Each structure stands twice: as C-alpha cells, then as structure tokens.
Amino acid sequence: MPMSLAACAAPERPARTIVWLATDPELGGKGCGDFHDLAGEQPAPQTMDVAEAEKLRRESERILADVLQVAS
C-alpha cells in the first residue's frame, strides 16, 4: 500500500532541527553528530559497520556508472 503524502512529516518539522543546529550558540564548534527533533541521537549500529559501508560505496558507484552510461 503506498504511503499517503499526509502520512509524511511536514517540511517544517525536519527544517526546524536544521535551523536549531545552525543557530544555537551552545552547539557551535561541538563537531558533528546525529540529530532528530531538536535532540542528539545515537547512530544505528549498522551505520558503524565499515565492511557494509564499503559494499554500499561499491554498489553506489556501479549504479552511477550504469546511469551515466545510459545518459551518454
């Protein structure tokens, strides 16, 4: 069943966190991190798997090469 547009978050909701990160003086210079709904979040364990990241990079490059070949 396709997701309806009404079920998606309004664009203002994720933008609110981006604006908060860009303007809150307490966050300045603290490096990077994962954030959601005006709060820091721990990254999912899968995002820390170097072997999986390398597989994703290789597959992304393969797909991009296919797309660029079709476009030319």
Strand order in the sheet with the most strands: 1-2
Overall average pLDDT: 82
The number of helical segments is 2
Task: Characterize the quaternary organization of these chains.
Answer: single chain
> Are there runs of 5+ residues with pLDDT below 50, and where?
none
Structural class: mainly alpha
Plain-language structure description:
This protein has 72 residues and is mainly α. 47% of the residues lie in helices and 8% in strands. The protein has helices at 12-23, 50-71; strands spanning 34-36, 39-41. Strands 1-2 form a two-stranded antiparallel ribbon. A hairpin with a 2-residue loop joins strand 1 (34-36) and strand 2. The longest helix has 22 residues, at 50-71. The radius of gyration is 18 Å and the shape is extended. The model has no long low-confidence stretch (mean pLDDT 82).
Quick overview:
The protein has 2 helices and 2 strands; from the N terminus they run αββα. It has 72 residues and is mainly alpha-helical.
Secondary-structure map with pairings?
Elements: H1 12-23, E1 34-36, E2 39-41, H2 50-71
Antiparallel strand pairs: 1-2
What key attributes describe this structure?
2 strands, mainly alpha, two-stranded antiparallel sheet, 72 residues
